Amino acid sequence: MFKSFVIRKYHFVMVLGFLCIAFAAFLFLRNPQILMTTAEPAASAERTIQLVTGEFKTKLDNGKEIEAYRWDPGTIVVRKGENVKLSIYGVNGASHPFIIEGLNIKGEVKKGKETVVQFKADQTGTYRLICTTHPDIAHSGPMIAYINVIE
Fold first, then answer.
1. b/e string for 95-120 if b means 16 or more Cβ within 10 A?
2. pTM value?
3. What is the SS3 assignment for 100?
């Protein structure tokens, strides 16, 4: 005697969904880059953060041109104990001499050049990255970024 097997739409959808989930899990587990990004960085690993200098310009109704400079990103969050490398690329403005308050770091970013500074985030708190050329509104600023060190 001949037996027939009937596949219902519900069963087909369930099997197809299971196969999709299994395939996604296979891809996830096979790709080591994905696994590395989900893990906490090692305490001795160095974290590189990319920054750029930026500029905004506009003209007022009276024809006067105003500009403002900034670091981008303007806020950086790191964990206490991390080894941090700031890679700062000069896009706008000829020169941006800077200090990082509380970390005893000084440097200068020049247009078209990369400046690299390194530090270990030993203390929690907020540290200001200040361009000494643009410290306030009178000097096309304030050009300040904040480095927040958290537990």
1. ebebbbeebeeeeebeeeeebebebe
2. 0.67
3. strand
